[in-house]
Amino acid sequence: xxxxxxxxxxxxxxxxxxxxxxxxxxxxxxxxxxxxxxxxxxxxxxxxxxxxxxxxxxxxxxxxxxxxxxxxxxxxxxxxxxxxxxxxxxxxxxxxxxxxxxxxxxxxxxxxxxxxxxxxxxxxxxxxxxxxxxxxxxxxxxxxxxxxxxxxxxxxxxxxxxxxxxxxxxxxxxxxxxxxxxxxxxxxxxxxxx
Length: 194
Known about the structure:
The chain is mainly alpha-helical. Helices cover 57% and strands 11% of the residues. The protein contains 5 helices and 4 strands. The protein has helices spanning 2-21, 51-61, 65-69, 75-108, 122-161; strands at 26-28, 34-36, 170-177, 184-191. A hairpin with a 5-residue loop joins strand 1 (26-28) and strand 2. Helix 2 (51-61) runs antiparallel to helix 5. It is elongated and about 95 Å long. It starts with a helix and ends with a strand.
């Protein structure tokens, strides 16, 4: 059962590779004369070795500008959302940190009129300050990481944009008969032209 599934799978790959890998280059015109179709050659722009560095520089100056340079416009809102969320959490944690710090300072000064009096003791205020301080630092690290990822994404995207992908690639399964053992070997071949 297992062997037959493998053979069926390889056979289906072979059929699809043969049917989709070839392009009809002959056509009949109205007078039943055979004409050869000419393949349209896609023009490849010249290689610009500075494009990745330029895209990375643009993203470093203004997040999302490198993505605009690469014409990946859909990534710009993702970059800004990725930066805005940790900045929001930084601001929120800073506000909470200041609330607990101010309450703790007032208690040290001898006042008993802070908003946490009777609910949180001095050790609780110190622990809350540590908690929000740690969250502020994590938010800064996440913001810096997303900023760096934004720059790296622009650089890599500019590199890949110049990568020439040819239509002359084809993947074909093949069967080879071993005359000594009498068994069939299944192989895959990748053909490409330079």
